[in-house]
Specification:
heterodimer; A: 399 residues; alpha/beta; 6-stranded mixed beta sheet; 13 helices; 12 strands; 15% strand; disordered N terminus; B: 606 residues; alpha+beta; Elongation Factor Tu (Ef-tu), domain 3; Arc Repressor Mutant, subunit A; DNA polymerase, domain 1; 6-stranded antiparallel beta sheet; 5-stranded parallel beta sheet; 18% strand; globular
């Protein structure tokens, strides 16, 4: 398995309106099964291209094209259905698919799945996104170059504009606006490729995992429908905290006082290095070493309403029912977002917007400082005086 | 012997020499200033103006240290402009056009008041070993003994003038230079290099028709460089701007073969920010109409300076070029432009105190450090003079702080990076630019002024009084609240100006408004100022850490390819050395420090 938690998604893949042919795309586990059923085919008969109508008969005569898992665009089982391109037809086809268990795909979701399954690279996604927006793809490198040019312009304007007509505060304002937009666009592209941060709730049986999970889900309203469990008997929900999304996974713990090693192994097997763990234990016993050594881990001493034991160092007392410790839990849940590429592009964009305001307000020196901060946010900086050195090479200045 | 005042001998009577002599006197030493022509002390050999972006702020720093440049610039000003008023208070650049002759008179008067002894003569050699110089020998055979010495000979140190096909020794038009002293320095095994600079032709005022030219207006505001100047600078004289014509550019292009810059006669490197007209035309052929500023040399002077037309072409070509400018059809050139090559001390030959390497009582200031500009020279002169006196008196020498002054930025740049071309200050050389403003020089230089001991008791008292007011204002800004925010917090909002804060502080009188404005700016920029300081100190901590453990720089992540090649080739011993390498950029230094930090952590945990 290259991905977990994927469900069946469908969408009209061609533009709205009338056309000779329209394509409806279906991707995810069970895609082929569903189409075979709707077309009245025997199981396993939809391989490659088929023209048979079945349930679709009253809608349209259509052609289906199928790919097995691993061979399609999304990397999942996938079917493209070609029908007549009238709004009524595509809508009716979609209705049948949704009745059969598919859900409407989110914008860009096919491409995101393609990236997640390793069919395409992050760069491909950025380039695709740029093509869809009718722009030449602009990457980090271009943004960096743009920001450097911006600083050279600022320094030239500060040192030389007044007397040598070199550099221009107006040019700076124009450039800073364009850079801000480029940074925002990169933030969006990056965000579309980032997996939501994921946190697993783990611990021995009866430690209150499901209680915490349910409280969080109830309070923070699941914004995306339930997805099939990542772990056996487990549940996964996407919740929103302080405007940021987190995927929360509950793992099952069975087997008396013993850990359910199988459930644990399954969970550990699907975990990525960036995934967080909330380890819950009434007895405050150390988690297994491969859990304890994870980068993001929160040790929770649970059910404080029932336990009398002293809180040990490094453990957070939490009582889900009374709300004790819940603020810290939520802070832990949203913390990793600060380190993602999209958040650093977003911060850079904010700093560039500040720079624009400062420049238009007549403080280019401050604006230059802010643009430098944006550059730094992307892990790059000009040495003091470097910008002016470049300005000297670029502009004719001097008395 | 104990009661005898130490004697500081200053070699050179330019902007560096004057401040050096005054600073030594202010500290209680006896200053002797040796110069070939006492009539030309503090002469402005190039453009008749003082200040500008960063430079104007430096003049205020000189003033805060008790120096003379600001006082004299205020008195002798012909016109005042505040540059960059629309680019933020941190980069405001106060500048005056100066009456060149009056400036000389004024500075000489201050030397007299400070009892500086002026000795006419040309120094040919230093006597004594490097560890202890005993005296200087003049061309006429006299010897002047001293306890410490300041070398500030400017372009007179091995100076060679060039114009057209002609070259002749000299430090300035009409003045002789000193090759003997330069030879003496080489003989003492100091590493000496050559720079080149140039100047523009001067024309007779009445030969020019300014009626068609764009007038350069002065700034209407009350300004003075010096806190002790009684009145605002007046702007009584006019300046104009004209542009070079295609004919002028064509003339230069066709006659490059006669420019010593292009025949290989001049080998010293010149400044890119102050290029000759030959350079402008050659390096930027697509550009025409370079601005030329027409500046009066003095209230009574018949001469006008053509700022922007530095050239060393032959006289007749200069005539054709100048006369092709609009309004200059009948121009009479009173003095032709020329280039000058001179010697300076290479990087590593002097320390942050401006003492020359391996010497006990020999200091340097001005162009000998590789700098260019009156303001840069004067500031260094003040520091060198104060430190020479300190050495003679057995006191501790002063070192300026890069985070607190342009003087500190300049000295640090010269010592760690060295000058690849004549060095001048730019505001962007300062990491802490939002703090290094012209409005807060006294506050920034407080510690250094104490260390140099060059500020007069009267000024110190006035400063202490001002400081008290400042502290009262600062306390009030922290305690007065508007809508739950303190005035200090309110000041940080971008749209809030000093007047908005003043509205909540009726107790602040008009004469204290300037202090309040400074406080508001400090609050506004405080986040950036603290960030710059934090970064600086973390860099300082790593400066002396050894890099020898790194065998292959390609293994250090995030280094640029150029940096990897340069570092693998040079194998610098410390971060400080890596900092001095041109191919190593800021991001590379940060990557190196990150690498060292990681190494630290792994050593600690293993």
């Amino acid at each position: 398995m290259t991905h977990t938690g994927s469900d069946l998604i469908a969408a009209v893949a061609t533009p709205p309106g009338s056309s000779a042919v329209a394509v409806v795309r279906l991707s995810g586990p069970g895609a082929v099964d569903l189409v075979e059923k709707l077309m009245g085919l025997h199981r396993g008969r939809l391989a490659g291209m088929r023209r048979k109508v079945g349930d679709f008969a009253w809608v349209d005569r259509l052609v289906a094209l199928s790919w097995p898992q691993g061979a399609s665009y999304t990397g999942e089982e996938m079917v493209d259905l070609m029908c007549h391109g009238t709004p009524g037809t595509t809508e009716a086809v979609m209705d049948l698919l949704m009745e059969g268990g598919a859900r409407l795909a989110l914008p860009g979701e096919f491409t995101r799945r393609a990236w997640q399954s390793g069919k395409i690279t992050a760069m491909d996604v950025l380039n695709l996104s740029a093509k869809y927006h009718g722009k030449r793809p602009e990457g980090r490198k271009e943004l960096e170059e743009r920001l450097q040019a911006l600083l050279v312009q600022a320094e030239a304007a500060i040192e030389f504009e007044e007397e040598h007509d070199a550099g221009s505060a107006d040019n700076f304002a124009t450039l800073v606006r364009a850079s801000r937009d480029a940074a925002l666009e990169l933030a969006c592209s990056a965000a579309s490729m980032e997996l939501l941060p994921r946190v697993f709730i783990m611990g021995p049986v009866n430690s209150g995992k499901s209680t915490l999970f349910n409280v969080l889900v109830k309070e923070k309203a699941a914004v995306v429908s339930s997805e099939p469990g990542t772990t056996r008997d487990g549940a996964e929900r996407t919740i929103g905290i302080q405007g940021r999304m987190v995927r929360l996974c509950d793992t099952a713990g069975t087997g008396g006082d013993m850990l359910d090693t199988e459930a644990l192994e399954i969970a550990v097997g699907v975990m990525k290095p960036d995934d967080g763990v909330i380890w819950m234990d009434r007895k405050q016993q150390k988690p297994p070493v491969h859990i304890a050594n994870r980068r993001r881990i929160l040790l929770v001493a649970s059910q404080r309403d029932r336990e009398r034991e002293e809180i040990r160092e490094g453990w957070l007392p939490v009582t889900a029912v009374t709300g004790e410790g819940m603020r810290e839990v939520m802070e832990f849940l949203v913390r990793p977002e600060d380190d993602t590429p999209s958040s650093s592009y977003r911060k850079a964009a904010t700093q560039l917007e500040d720079a624009r305001i400062a420049a238009e307000g007549g403080d280019l020196a401050l604006a230059s400082e802010m643009a430098t901060a944006a550059l730094e946010e992307l892990n790059l900086r000009l040495r003091s005086g470097e910008a002016v050195e470049r300005a000297l090479e670029t502009f004719c200045v001097g008395k | 012997m104990a009661s005898r005042k130490p004697i500081i001998v200053v070699i050179g009577g330019g902007h560096a020499g004057v401040e050096a002599a005054l600073a030594a006197s202010a500290k209680g030493a006896r200053s002797i200033l040796v110069t070939p022509d006492p009539g030309k002390i503090a002469m402005m050999s190039c453009n008749p103006s003082i200040g500008g972006i960063a430079k104007g702020t430096l003049v205020r720093e000189i003033d805060a240290l008790g120096g003379a440049m600001g006082v004299s610039a205020d008195i002798t000003a012909l016109q005042f402009r505040m540059l960059n008023m629309k680019k933020g208070p941190a980069v405001w650049g106060p500048r005056v056009q100066t009456d060149v002759d009056q400036y000389c008179v004024q500075q000489k008067r201050l030397l007299g008041e400070a009892s500086v002894e002026i000795v006419p003569g040309i120094v040919t050699s230093l006597c004594g070993c490097n560890e202890r110089i005993e005296s200087v020998l003049l061309q006429d055979g006299t010897t002047i003994k001293g306890d410490a010495f300041v070398l500030a000979a400017g372009t007179f140190l091995g100076g060679m003038l060039h114009r057209g096909g002609r070259s002749w020794p000299g430090g300035r038009r009409g003045d002789i230079s000193s090759f003997a002293l330069e030879r003496d320095l080489r003989g003492r095994a100091f590493h000496v290099k050559r720079f080149k600079t140039g100047t523009s032709p001067r024309v007779l005022r009445q030969s020019i028709d300014t009626s068609m030219l764009e007038e350069q207006s002065s700034t209407r505001m009350c300004f003075r460089f010096s806190t002790v100047s009684p009145a605002c600078i007046s702007s009584s004289e006019k300046c104009w701007v004209t542009r070079t014509t295609e004919k002028a550019e064509e003339t230069v292009r066709n006659n490059l073969k006669d420019s010593p810059l292009y025949t290989g006669r001049i080998t010293g490197k010149g400044p890119r920010y102050c290029p000759s007209f030959e350079d402008k035309v050659t390096r930027f052929p697509e550009r025409t109409g370079h601005p030329i500023h027409l500046e009066p040399m003095g209230r009574r002077s018949r001469m006008m300076y053509l700022n922007g037309l530095s050239t060393s072409l032959p006289e007749e070509i200069q005539e054709i070029t100048v006369r092709s400018l609009e309004g200059f059809e009948n121009a009479v050139i009173a003095a032709y432009g020329y280039s000058v090559e001179y010697s300076f001390l290479a990087k590593g030959e002097f320390s942050r105190t401006l003492r020359i390497r391996g010497t006990g009582n020999l200091y340097a200031a001005g162009q000998i450090l590789g700098t260019s500009g009156y303001e840069e020279a004067a500031a260094a002169g003040l520091l060198a003079g104060a430190n020479a006196a300190a050495a003679a008196m057995g006191e501790e020498e002063a070192v300026p702080d890069r985070m607190k002054s342009y003087l500190g930025v300049m000295i640090d740049d010269l010592v760690t990076r060295g000058a690849e071309e004549p060095y001048r200050l730019f505001s962007s050389r300062a990491e802490n630019r939002l703090y290094l403003r012209q409005d807060n020089a006294e506050e920034r230089l407080e510690t250094l002024a104490e260390a140099t001991g060059t500020r007069s008791p009267g000024r110190t008292r006035a400063y202490e009084e001002k400081k008290r007011v400042r502290e009262t204002i600062r306390d009030a800004m922290l305690s007065i609240r508007v809508d739950g925010q303190t005035l200090e917090e309110l000041s940080r909002r971008p749209e809030i100006q000093a007047e908005d804060i003043a509205a909540h502080m009726p107790q602040v009188g008009d004469e204290q408004k300037e202090i309040l404005a400074t406080e508001v700016l400090d609050a506004k920029y405080s986040g950036y100022i603290r960030r710059a300081e934090r970064r600086h100190f973390s860099r300082e901590r790593y400066r002396e850490v050894s890099l020898l453990g790194i065998e292959d720089y390609s293994r250090v992540s995030s280094l640029s390819i150029e940096a990897v090649q340069a570092l693998n080739g040079a194998k610098p011993v410390t971060i400080r050395e890596a900092e001095g390498m041109a191919a190593v950029r800021e991001a590379d230094l940060e990557a190196l420090i990150l690498h060292l930090m990681k190494a630290d952590v792994s050593r600690e945990t293993s």
